[in-house]
Amino acid sequence: MGPCKFHFSQMLLPDGWARDVGIETDDAGMITAVLPGAAGAGESLPGVAVPGLANVHSHAHQRAMAGLAERSGPGADSFWTWREAMYGFALKMRPEELQAVAAQLYVECLKAGFTSVGEFQYLHHQPDGTPYANRAELSLRCLEAAREAGISMTMLPVLYAYGGFGGQAANAGQRRFLNNQQGFQAIIAEIASSLRGHERMGIAPHSLRAVTVELLREVMTEAGPVHIHIAEQIKEVEDCLAFNGMRPVEYLSSEFDLNARWSLIHATHMNARETSGLAASGAHAALCPVTEANLGDGIFNGVDYMSAGGAIAIGTDSHVSVGAAEELRVLEYSQRYLTRARTVLSGGAARSTGRNLFEAALAGGARSIAQPASGIRVGQRLDAVVLDDEHPALIGRKGDGILDSWIFSGGSACVRDVIAGGKIVVRDGHHAREAEIKTKFAAAMKRLQE
Ligand SMILES: [Zn+2]
Questions:
Q1: Catalytic residue at 266?
Q2: pTM for the complete prediction?
Q3: How many A from CA of 388 to the centre of ligand 1?
Q4: How far is the CA of 58 from the centre of ligand 1 (A)?
Q5: Which DSSP state fits 168?
Q6: 317 dihedral zone (left: phi>0; alpha: psi -120 to 50; beta)
Q7: pLDDT digits (tens, 9 = 90+) for 165-203
Q8: pLDDT-based confidence at 80, cuts 50/70/90?
Q9: In angstroms, what is the span from residue 317 Cα to ligand 1's centroid?
């Protein structure tokens, strides 16, 4: 593919909305020119174009069980009973099935407004816990799935060594996840030698339950983003307090110099000091509001965190549903439940809530997974989502009203065309390979549910 030219009738640029925008890219999809007023140049995409967002927190294999954990059990259901159901599914999945499930998921991500994904990949070994001949087999399957779908991936292989604080032994259900330092570094080396184009890598110490700070320090020598689950559940806070008298975010902050390299996944349960400290650190709170609602995690303190200038990113995590607009909507709604107010995260008076949330997730998301797609400007990658301005939710909407109506009303159904890495991957609501990818997904799902 050579350099490309596109023409957008309306587009959200870093300094605001513009009409008749011409964009030129090089053959890697990087923007080489932004030409407002360049009517008629290049392939024309009518509608309203906005930058593509990063989905910074994905567990692709969990897409296979979306909706299957909604039947009540004999006792009280919780995150921990859901986790047992998830382990059951994770233990069955074969490499080609993971690839099929992940490819389906990534097509869904693109069609829902995400153009890059951070894959927090913790399924490493064979069902009996023995490593595959290539120790990174399952991570490479996810990378292959991302290539099939045409989404830019940051692979975040997970270091999972223990079953609880202080290096407790893991349980049998976790056998596919476990690595010591050497095993983990072998996975990293395999992935690093396989990356192409816009693919990036970081590391994902699973949680402070699954790694010790000593082990984490050993693997921090690798470059790239660091993602860690933290303070998602009250039980984790209680276990951490019992272990060393500190809360999880307090403990992590006391051991490491948190900065923009870090993303703290969920960070649901923080006290006021942890909230202001994290906001000032430059690290990201990677929020997954739909999954957090589904799992009964609790509500992130978005009001104090964002008003203190804290960086956010969003992810679809368990993929119980997949949508960029939906995650931002539920993030705002969680704050409305809590404060009994409206337009809570608008960032000030007379501002659009949708625009404020969208821009926070755009900048934070790209930085969180080290993808060069933080907006439509020269030197960034052309990742764009064209919304259908004839969709009933968007008819007659102007400027930031388009973002508000997409996020709070129309949702993913408004997405018409998607450009990822400078290539059109979704056209008129359809992904070029969606039929083939769905057929493989269906075969995998059939066997997994036998
Ligand atoms: Zn997660």
A1: yes
A2: 0.97
A3: 32
A4: 7
A5: B
A6: left
A7: 999 999 888 999 999 999 999 999 999 999 999 999 999
A8: confident
A9: 5
**% of residues, the chain, pLDDT over 70:** 98
Domain boundaries, the chain: 4-50+376-436, 52-368
CATH number for 52-368: choose from 3.30.1330.10, 3.40.50.150, 1.20.1290.10, 3.20.20.140: 3.20.20.140
The string of pLDDT tens digits covering residues 110-133 is: 999 999 999 999 999 999 999 999
Phi, psi of 423 (to 5 degrees): -120, 145
Active-site residue flag, 227? no
Instruction: Give the Cα separation of 52 and 232 in Å (integer).
Output: 27
Tokens of 90: 């994770």
Q: What is the pLDDT of residues 398-442, one digit of tens each?
A: 999 999 999 999 999 999 999 999 999 999 999 999 999 999 999
For the chain, helix (H) and strand (E) counts, in that order, are: 14, 18
Confirm if 100 and 441 have CB atoms less than 8 A apart.
Answer: yes
Strand partners, 313: 286
Q: Cα(351) to centroid of ligand 1, in Å?
A: 32
CA 318 – ligand 1 centroid, Å = 7
pLDDT (mean) for 89-109: 95
Sign of CA dihedral 84, 106, 144, 284: negative
d(CA 58, CA 116): 11
DSSP characters over 204-231: EE-BTTTS-HHHHHHHTTS-S-EEEEES
Given a cut of 90, whether residue 33 has pLDDT beyond it is yes
Cα 213 to ligand 1 centroid, rounded to whole Å: 19
Fold of the 4-50+376-436 domain: Urease, subunit C; domain 1 (2.30.40)
The catalytic residue among 266, 269, 319, 431 is 266
Among residues 227, 284, 317, 400, which one is catalytic?
A: 317
